Amino acid sequence: MKFTSYGAAREVTGSKHMIEIGGKKVLFDCGMFQGRRKEAEEKNRNFQFIPSEIDAVVLSHAHIDHSGSLPNLVKQGYKGAIHCTPATHDLCNHMLMDSAYIQERESEYLNEKNRKQGDELIEPIYTQEDATLALEYFKEQKYNEPFEPVPGMKITFREAGHILGAAMLEIEAEGKKIIFTGDLGRKDLPVLRDPYKPENADILITESTYGNRLHESVVEAEDKLGDIINRTIKKGGKVIIPAFALERTQEIVYAIHKLVKSGRVSEDLPVYVDSPLAVNVTEVFRKHKEAYDIETNKIFADNEEDPFGFSMLRYITKVEESKALNHHVGPCIIISASGMCEFGRINHHLKNNIEDHRNTVLIVGYMAENTLGRKILNKEGEVKIFGKPYRLNAEVEVIDSYSGHADRSDLLSFATHLKGLKKIFIVHGEEKAQMEYKKALQQNGFTDIQIPQPGETFEI
Ligand SMILES: [Zn+2]
């Protein structure tokens, strides 16, 4: 049996890992690389393997850095099943179509430039048509029920506690048990069940995004959120929350709903979710009640209450309604995408609100370097939005405990809990985090630890 990492090897995006067994190739995740434009273009257009030679694909979850290259894989000749949980399938219906739309717009934008400069025109990496075709190959597999993607390999999806539908994989082949974490979540996240803790394994393929960091506790986040909202309302201001359309938006809505329900935030405060993708994704959350944790069921679902809806909450899809929010008078909360403020409606809300000292911009997610979100997080005095400078007078608050990834102590306790563990592969992390996590594992007595280079093959 062989293992090769073709993506998310010494980096955090573009997950693609392969196990070969008895002449069959199984690809685990097929994500897009996100980063500098030229490198992303090269890595996302071409595969380091031949798609038609793959026998099965197993998808851990719907995030684009794990699923986003599937339409290209099918476009380039893959014709087998794409195994995933039912919620992941439903989420990918929206996520892949949205990603295809972005690819189409991106190539249109570049072609405008190319035309002017007399350069050759480019094709989108994939189109909405390609995404529709790829979605036909999806095959739903339930949690905790083993399936055989190829003869001689048995896989069971287990709860990863990372986003709705996310799974970690228990792989049994050639008498060995391999755990592939996918993206490993953390306990106590809103809505989601806590990650499954397997008892034993021979080999662990683990993510390491926060292999060198510890998170704040999720439990305190709710109180902090309530305080920030109430302080801003008192000043007569608005709370602007940039949030990813998938998972973070639903978690924040859920937390606000709990605050309103328990009387900690006024039930008269208008709350707006302004993102068409977030609206579609929230529908998937409503459908998949089977994936909720005990708390969500107890507070909401068991009483047939919608966790993602309450009287003053409005979901906005139409452009005119989004624009009308510019003229909203008085306190409110606006949750909008994109999560890092790089594009989308959030930029209009920031433009209209960051110069007013009564308002608060609340950061609840990761902000990559060089993004507008990072500049706001750094409290730069002046930021550019749509090419124009704006004074950042609004308060900036940060709640970073909503992270959907296990931190170093979660990762360590996951690995040390596994009886019989002999070999560890560290993937999906920046090198610095991986090296520090490796050191921590060594201190816990593990000796056979690999941090694969892209394309490096190991006999396992
Ligand atoms: Zn993820």
What does this structure look like?
The mean pLDDT is 95. Strand 2 and strand 3 (24-28) form a beta hairpin. The protein has helices at 37-45, 64-67, 70-75, 86-117, 128-135, 218-234, 248-261, 276-287, 294-299, 319-324, 346-353, 372-377, 408-417, 431-443; strands at 2-7, 16-21, 24-28, 56-58, 82-84, 138-140, 147-150, 153-159, 167-173, 176-180, 203-206, 238-242, 271-274, 313-316, 332-336, 360-363, 382-385, 388-391, 395-398, 423-426, 449-450, 457-459. With 460 residues, it is an alpha/beta fold. The longest helix has 32 residues, at 86-117. It is built from 14 helices and 22 strands. Strands 6-5-4-3-2-1-22 form a 7-stranded mixed sheet. The chain folds into 2 domains: 2-213 and 404-459, Ribonuclease Z/Hydroxyacylglutathione hydrolase-like (Metallo-beta-lactamase, Chain A, 4-Layer Sandwich), CATH 3.60.15.10; 218-398, Rossmann fold (3-Layer(aba) Sandwich), CATH 3.40.50.10890. The site of zinc ion has 5 residues, from loops. Residues 61, 63, 66, 162, 183 line the site of zinc ion.
Dominant shape: globular
Bound molecules: zinc ion
Secondary structure category:
alpha/beta
Q: CATH superfamily membership of the largest domain, which one?
A: Ribonuclease Z/Hydroxyacylglutathione hydrolase-like
**Count of individual helical segments:** 14
In the predicted model, the low-confidence regions spanning at least 5 consecutive residues are none
- Whole-angstrom Rg: 22 Å
Q: What's the level 1 CATH class of the largest domain?
A: Alpha Beta
Which second-level CATH architecture of the largest domain applies?
Answer: 4-Layer Sandwich
The number of strands is 22
| CATH topology type of the largest domain | Metallo-beta-lactamase, Chain A
Q: Tell me the strand percentage band.
A: 15-25%
Work out the helicity level: 25-40%
Summed up, the domain count is: 2
Characterize the main sheet. 7 strands, mixed
**Please, what is the average pLDDT?**
95
Q: State the distance separating the first and last CA atoms.
A: 6 Å
Strand order of the largest sheet: 6-5-4-3-2-1-22
